[in-house]
Predict the structure of Pol polyprotein.
Amino acid sequence: MVNQLAKFSPELASQTEPLRQLLKRDSLWSWGHPQEQSFQAVKKNLTSTPVLAHYCAGRETIIAADASNAGLGAVLLQIQPDGSRRPVSYISRSLTPAEKNYAVIEKEALAATWASERFSEYILGSTYTIETDHKPLVPLLTTKELYKMPPRIQRFRLHLMRFSPNVIHVSGKQQITADALSRAPASAPSEENIALVNDADVMAKQTLDGLPASSRKLQDIITQQKCDPEIVE
């Protein structure tokens, strides 16, 4: 129930941390003050009215995404008639053991891609903005040539091609909600999350196989051809 309603409250991810620790295999079962406090806070949260806006297809849509060493977090926002930014939905998840070994920029790229996939029912077929506090990520997801990017970034960039995002940099102060969600993820990676990376791998291979050879690759081919006796003859 908590996982199902987590998207309606940005606080549930942090409130359930003491309870989720009890679910770990190597954790001893101990119900103390932190667990009781967490349980009561979750109950109160679930019975309170969430402060969320209804999604409107005609309004400017923003996805603020962030990554930490623990997880990913994102919030879907829309600009209201009065100019305010109101949240429509919150999401968060923990990183897999493999994802925890990613470089910082790779985690940030994963966060933007994963958030777009999770919010696809809202953004597919329309333009939207991705906000990131990691400035080097902006050109990698927008203007930089595909073959010049690291392999993992290539895969995430390719996966974003079915969407129409405008990626911009914002200060960390504007990413408080997404940052908080990433540091206290509400759920573990699902099969869909794992499929995201697997699908990206397949798409990347198919696309990269059709890319023109780089200057360095062409020079390697020329060098090898000169050393091939059959071609020389």
Notes: The mean pLDDT is 81.
